[in-house]
Amino acid sequence: VLSFCHWLEATALGTIVRESLYGFPVLVAIHIMGLVLSVGMLVWFDLRLLGVALQSAPVSRVYRRLIPWASAGYGVMFLSGAILFTGYATQAYQNTFFRIKVAALLLAGINAAFYHLVTERDRPAWDEAPQVPSAARTAGALSIALWATVILCGRLMAYTMY
Amino acid sequence: MLEALQHSWVAHAVGESQMLTASLSSLHLIGLTLVMGSAVLSNLRVMGLLLADLPVPDVTRPAWRALAAGLCVSAITGFLLFAPRAEGAAANSTFRLKLSLLVSALVVHAVVRQRAEGQPGSPGGARILGALALLLWLGVALAGCAFILLE
Description:
The complex is a heterodimer. Chain A has seven helices and no strands. By secondary structure, chain A is mainly alpha-helical. The relative contact order of chain A is 0.16. By secondary structure, chain B is mostly helical.
């Protein structure tokens, strides 16, 4: 993995990220804008699952309406994050907070997949209910906790890397 | 007053601990995420671009509560981060721009809510003001990024 990180840093893209005057701050700003749109929208679906907001709309409708906006944010966030990684791959890979951040990202993905593949199977029975079953509420709470961890570690790695 | 703040024990505690500064900065960003998510949700609903089949107050009221909660987190952590460099930050034009945009965004957001929640549907004026509120909130976030990254 380390040799791959070294190779990434030596690419033209990695060099530009590291050496250009405004490349890094502009990419970080884009990364944060992607973050606030993606997680900022997703949290409203999580709050619907928790039964504390938007209860007058079915769960499936809240999901369908929010997810295009959140997906646009995720696209921006992951792309800018990947480009930022090319500039500082080795330092990031060796940073504990980066590793926790990636682990939290993976767990957030697993949590979402479990919700869609398992928990959602009997959704027609509770789609319109203001309060959904505990498995769905747990998915919402886990999502919020994991994304807060991602943000927390994202900032902490910025302070401990450079 | 700024000098007194900068030499207070709070400012010294934050200024001397990188982990405390990093943790406060993390919470500041979590607060911002909640503020921005709520501002986007609320103003897109007023503009008729999101959850248009729900009554406006069903979206804008919970969004306001979440926005206020996020703003409290960001304001408290922001004040603590401001303390160790109060004099420098207060003189920084990007920081001043960020605070001006924040006040403008809050005022326009409140006007949008008042106009949109009081009438059925989304009146045209409220839609335009909703777009303005969204731009102002975006400006707050971008000015915050610029202040941190370019100073």
